[in-house]
Amino acid sequence: MRRRASSQEEEAAIDMTPMLDIVFIMLIFFIVTTSFVKEAGIDVSRPNASTAERKEAGNILIAIRSNGDVWIDKRQVDIRSVRANVERLHAENPEGAVVIIADKASETGRFVEVMDQVRLAGVENVSIAAQEPGS
């Protein structure tokens, strides 16, 4: 009798290997198909523009705060290192565009300095982020 009871317990066990394989395949699928949103790292109050167009997010985001601080990739950088950072990021993705997100209270001079550093880095595709009226 004892043999019969132990063999029935073994037959009743469920093999979990196929289910784990499916879970791992689904996990890999979701990781590969996920699109990641790049952010500048700070919140900026963008000015309104009636001619603003919605574009796909640029690959290099530069934010300028109202006090003149410059942020790239969620970290504050000095104006003198903007060129080197943009060159490095542009080398990683040569097709990438630069989007400058300037606070509406920031100085125009700081914006021009940042744009000049981006152009010196060899990037000609530069956009300015604005907000559509009503959004």
From TrEMBL:
Protein name per the record: Biopolymer transporter ExbD
Membrane topology: Single-pass membrane protein; Single-pass type II membrane protein
Coiled-coil segments on the chain, per record: none
Family of the protein in this entry: Belongs to the ExbD/TolR family.
GO biological process: one example: protein transport
Gene3D superfamilies the record matches: 3.30.420.270
GO MF term set: transmembrane transporter activity
GO cellular component: plasma membrane
Subcellular location as annotated: Cell membrane
Transmembrane regions listed in the UniProt entry: 12-37
Coarse class of the protein's main subcellular location: membrane
UniProtKB keywords: Cell membrane, Membrane, Protein transport, Transmembrane, Transmembrane helix, Transport
